[in-house]
Amino acid sequence: MILYFTATGNSRWIAELLAEAMHDTAVSIVDCLKQGSIPAGLSTADRLGIVFPVHSWYAPRVLIDFLSQLRLPDCCYRYAVCTCGDDMGKGMNRLAEHFPLDAAWSVAMPNTYVPMFNLDDGALCRKKIENARHAVASIAEDVIARKRVWNVHEGSAAWLKTYVVNPLFVRFVIGTRSFHVDEGCISCGICGKSCPVGNIRLVDGHPVWGKQCIHCMACLHFCPRKVIQYGKATQKKGRYRLEDYLCRFTTPT
């Protein structure tokens, strides 16, 4: 089984590619959280994969909380794959302190955190996605062979990013006060449906953010009118949709 947590879709895509390559099953952690359930069969699983996005050089807190509920047999081969715009810092090592791992990989995917960074340009997005396809094929082979691999791109100042910057980010940056909606909202509710933690509801036809935000920016990217903003930082920046880049790999029918 492969459990994945996703917001903008990058980690879901990686999990589904892995599942296809290994004839495995990809299960959404978001769906599990909504249903208040733990997937059946984990108590006897001999292999479990975790796929998730990096948020400020660590895993999202909601993922850590979910993993803490899992009970796996000692013989279960555990591996994790994180998606990140560039590097992971020491995030995978920190995750392994709470959820022991036999193997781990990082896979570069298009950057989505536009409040602080620019979107990758189209050429770079396509290159990352194509490289990710090749990486997944190699990861699948290693997992099937139950290899103990630690192929994670930590980047520079890795310890500082994960153990100093991340806690500061969680405490002082994550919040919803800067979210607002420009003119043109059509009250479609897609922002609420796209939120992986159910933190958005419509009030008088406009989104209102609660207190459970994880700053994944799914609401911002999936808004069909591109009217959701985070302060002034996102007003002149584009929006990311994985499907826009996957279509180039699709064979016309």
Verbal overview:
The protein is of the alpha/beta class and 253 residues long. It folds into 2 domains: 1-158, Flavodoxin domain (Rossmann fold); 170-238, Alpha-Beta Plaits (2-Layer Sandwich). It contains 9 helices and 10 strands. Helix 1 (10-22) packs parallel to helix 5 (122-144).
Give me some keywords for this one.
single chain, 253 residues, alpha/beta, Alpha-Beta Plaits, two-stranded antiparallel sheet, 17% strand
Topology, element by element:
Layout: E1 2-4, H1 10-22, E2 26-28, H2 29-35, E3 47-53, H3 61-67, E4 77-84, H4 91-98, E5 103-108, H5 122-144, E6 150-151, H6 158-173, E7 179-181, H7 190-194, E8 200-203, E9 206-209, H8 218-222, E10 228-230, H9 242-246
Parallel strand pairs: 1-2, 1-3, 3-4, 4-5, 5-6
Antiparallel strand pairs: 7-10, 8-9
Task: Describe the structure concisely for a colleague.
This protein is of the alpha/beta class. It has helices at residues 10-22, 29-35, 61-67, 91-98, 122-144, 158-173, 190-194, 218-222, 242-246; strands at residues 2-4, 26-28, 47-53, 77-84, 103-108, 150-151, 179-181, 200-203, 206-209, 228-230. It has two domains: 1-158, Rossmann fold; 170-238, Alpha-Beta Plaits.
Largest sheet report: 6 strands, parallel
Taken as a percent bin, the fraction of beta residues is 15-25%
User: What name does CATH use for the topology of the largest domain?
Assistant: Rossmann fold
Low-pLDDT stretches are none
Strand order of the largest sheet: 2-1-3-4-5-6
Give the structural class.
alpha/beta
Domain 4Fe-4S ferredoxin-type: 177-205, 211-233
InterPro entries: 4Fe4S_Fe-S-bd (IPR017896), 4Fe4S_Fe_S_CS (IPR017900), EFR1-like (IPR047964), Flavoprotein-like_sf (IPR029039)
Keywords: Iron, Iron-sulfur, Metal-binding
GO molecular function: iron-sulfur cluster binding; metal ion binding
